[in-house]
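hey so u asked for the seq, here:
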Amino acid sequence: MRMNFILMAALVPMMATAEDAKTGATDSEKIDSLLVMQKQVVRTIKNDPLADKSFGVEANLARLLLATEFTSFSGGVSLFALDRNAEIALPFYYGKSESHLESGDAQLSNVDFTEITQDIHYRYFLGNTQNGFYLSAFSRLAWLDGVKGDNEFDGFLDTANTNPPDRRSTEAKLGLGVGLGYRIFSYKGLYWGCGMSFGRYVLGENDKFRGAFFSLDNDEKFIFDVELLKFGWAF
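ran it, structure tokens below
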């Protein structure tokens, strides 16, 4: 990368001189033209912090700090060397709610619910380097575990305080979607990113579990994610 930068910096004066000779530019105009071309070269080549990086590991630790009855964690691995115009990201998410609703002296049914998702994203950067704004397409595999119910309020008026084994169930779902986001990479390795994803599940049963409304995914057919505090390190 350093050799390429030196080579381009050396070629810029030659290119500017040849171009100005054709147009008959004055000395002042030649200097202005040279400065403009040099700035373009620096902006194009130097803004490439991932030039010698192959992958990155990231996590959203703020989710753990905010954990109460609902605990969640998200992180992922990103691959940078496969496509120098894009990023291949493998984000995952874990969420678990443990809520025992009460009404007067009666404890209502336990509505614990667990959700695990694994995505694969192709993020295409809109600039001329692996930095800044990107558009993405993704697929998602979700695994859900909870208590079956007709709807999210099913069982709340019962006084049972256990989860009958025959009502517990799991469900796997497959979804597709698109997104947009922004990434800032430093030359030392630290980076930050934010993004928004929207999609829909195409395989798997929806609205299957009661208590699923404690999950961000909401056990629905639509996917909507927002990440603001995800930090990582590139290697």
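Residues 2-45 form one domain. Residues 103-108, 151-161 have pLDDT under 50 and may be disordered.
lmk if thats what u needed
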